[in-house]
Amino acid sequence: MEIIIGTHTVTEELENIRVSDYLALKFPQLQSRKAVKKALKKKLLLHNKNIALSGTYVKQGDLFELLEEQVTPPKIFPLGLEVLFEDEYLAVVFKPAGFPVSGNQYKTIHNALPHNLSSSQETDALNWPLPVHRLDAPTSGLLIIAKTHGARIALGEMLAKKEIQKHYHAVVQGYFNTKGILNTPIEGKKAESHLKTLSISPSKLNGHLSLLELSPLTGRTHQLRIHLSRLGHPIAGDKIYGKPGNTIGHKGLFLSAIALEFIHPKTNEKIEIRVKHPAKFDSYLAREARNATLE
């Protein structure tokens, strides 16, 4: 049975825009042209109730529907996860650093979810729980999980409408005392985050280290990492966007999603979850400050 997990109606007048170019960012699950092309290839997109074709031109009033991909059951990965919230509709878990949310491999959070969450008893229960959004593999933090079809659709729409607030803590290189907005485009697309400095510590290796709280308003790939690197304050441990010498042994990336705020799509309850950043953040800051005083 085909299950529709998202719809989009074209409201504006368009000229000479093809399906493959138009649909990026129109569904929360399709955040790039590459993702759109993959969905088109798998025939997961309907265009006015027919299989969508990449080269078709889009017109005002067109209806697009995104179908749920039929995938094989996960091979259970027995990784214990901290569960911060769970009911019949959704859950929030803490993702440890070093594991991808999903992908073509065994050790993923997706494969660990059935080991940690109970099955929903709702009539529209998913066969197994599914992540609603992503975190980079080296990033730790709070992750929303859908347990029913209805919750998955509603949470996806909330993400697209920016109705789910996410907050991160990061340790960055250098003295960065600020409060404001990061809003330089990434790959030509709008990318915006709020940030404020929480503390600044001396560092033998970096001069200073700054602990920041960041709240992304858009969801570009590696958004926070790219913005901070551009400013000359890369996140400590960032092997892609960091400066030479900013990787710390085997401590990984110092970025963690520490808070979520959203309205429960079924109960209308306000869900607010905040956790402390990983202990390695404080240990690293204290160690660097101690080493700096010994110089």
From TrEMBL:
Gene Ontology annotations of biological process type: enzyme-directed rRNA pseudouridine synthesis
All residue ranges annotated as the Pseudouridine synthase RsuA/RluA-like domain in the record: 90-229
Gene3D superfamilies: Pseudouridine synthase
InterPro entries, sorted: PsdUridine_synth_cat_dom_sf, PsdUridine_synth_RluA-like_CS, PsdUridine_synth_RsuA/RluA, RluA_PseudoU_synthase
GO MF: catalytic activity, acting on RNA; pseudouridine synthase activity; RNA binding
Family: Belongs to the pseudouridine synthase RluA family.
Protein name: tRNA pseudouridine65 synthase/23S rRNA pseudouridine1911/1915/1917 synthase
Origin species: Lishizhenia tianjinensis
